[in-house]
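Bumping with the actual sequence this time:
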Amino acid sequence: MFNAQDFLKTVSNKPGVYRMVNASNEIIYVGKAKSLKKRLSSYFRSYVPCKKTRALVRNIADVEVTITHSETEAFILEYNLIKQFLPRYNVLLRDDKSYPYIFMSAHKHPRLSIHRGTKKCKGEYFGPFPDVGAVRQSLYSLQKIFSIRQCQDSVYKNRSRPCLMYQIGRCAGPCVSGMISDEEYKELVNFTRLFLDGKDLEVIRILIKKMEAASMMLAFEKAAEYRDQIQALRITQEQQFVSQNSDDNLDAIGVSVENGIACIHVLFFRQGKILGSKNYFPTMPVDTEVFELASSFIGQFYLNQVDRRTIPSHIVINQDLGEELDLLEKSLSKISRRKVCLQSKPRGVRAQFLKLALTNATSALKSNINHKVTIHNRFSILSGALGIAPIKRIECFDVSHTMGKQTVASCVVFNQDGPVNQEYRRYNITGITGGDDYAAMAQTLERRYNKNIDPEKIPDVILIDGGKGQINRAWNVVKRLLVNWPKHPLMLGISKGTTRRLGLETLIKVSGKGFSMSSDSPALHLIQHIRDESHNHAISGHRAKRAKAQTTSVLQEIEGIGPKRRQALLKYMGGIRKLKYASIEEISNVPGISRVLAEKIHSSLQQQ
């Protein structure tokens, strides 16, 4: 038993971070405090009103403390520890992906492109955008208005005549001399930079002056080009403009909680325009207070952004953060190295934006709850149809390939809340005869279940996309592996039948008996959904592998063949096709290729 009284006597009054550990030495909660002694004492009072806190305290076997110099240091350390250990009693925001930017290179003729990750390349970065679709839409608009090149540098350097993009008016053609002068292209780049900085009104004013000047000089074709650019900019402005009357960057955060589920909607405003929005559904322990949810979200969301430009100058949220408000403001200001204002009760235009964010959060939460209710009902109906105990977890497998090549298998996982995306897996299948789906499925199941599995992650139902032969081969593999499992899953095959029409699927048991469900049965709809998800996951992996194979030389897979030897082989033999049909003696005649290496190359090419 944890002796709280003795422990509290040793705790400092300084700021810091505390980690609560259970009997299994697992960190179950991470918190920060301005005064560690005061905060930790609040957990061990005679009466604690919060159910979540009482459940947490019952599981504490030890408390580890780290003292920091300031609250800001504690704030950052808390985030890092939460991200590292994912404690079960903390609010968890699972949003680790990097946000996309528009990148303008620092070349003589700059290029526009989408960028993710660290900013190693020289140039200017505009963003971030909430999703890659917003970036593509912006690039598409810029391509039509200013004709800045978007081609790869390798293409740009090796052009002798302009490409199709120049022909359709989407590129100024800087790759070929004489198409556009350096000064004119630089002007287009400056216009693009101003537009991406939100100064489109300034761009329009400049273009109007240029149009009038060209008209006065009777250069009507040039004036018409300026006119078209002005019209395109005004259309874009109408689509994006929001009457904010301010150039400040702003994020409006709406928090909605219902039935133990939370949705947080973030609206991104930059330079008076809506840049986009996104819904977040953080993992929230039972009986978590909304105040804790909101403050945890802000900390994890903005600290997750590596670049300080992603923290706006104003953040508005519809929840009172109490004492955490000042701490969050100071911490975010210190991290971004500029003043960050955090408001929970804004006025005027910002209040309207916050109301819009809350409306979106409420709508998304209702949609999510309705979806989960539907999934729960389908699981319940499927349990009744199959005559087994309540189904909590289903795993489904599928195999995808093209003529037996680049075989990829998928495993998707569903629980009563829907798809568990983080547990999806793909398996690259090797060492089998091309096109042997039975062997591919056997290898997949062997790799999936031939390991220690958490009892909570043992599926109640295993679905196999295939007929009798496939289900029998799959069962022969699985029955050897589940000897030590506390429960045995039900295995079903999904056969599409001869007509392959949706709703006419036959479910096949291990015994070989098949049965069907009504085409309007919610249970069948659930099975179809899981089967389609598995199929899509497998085929997307296969397509990625096939695309990579088409752009990768088979010589790269042979040990001992680097870029220089690969180039010598292809140049000497006249291409990969002739190399495949060459003898060992012919290969060994290539400069730098020994007899032993020639045998290895010949053997590898014959196997492929």
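The tokens above came from a reply further down the thread. Residues 238-245 have pLDDT under 50 and may be disordered.
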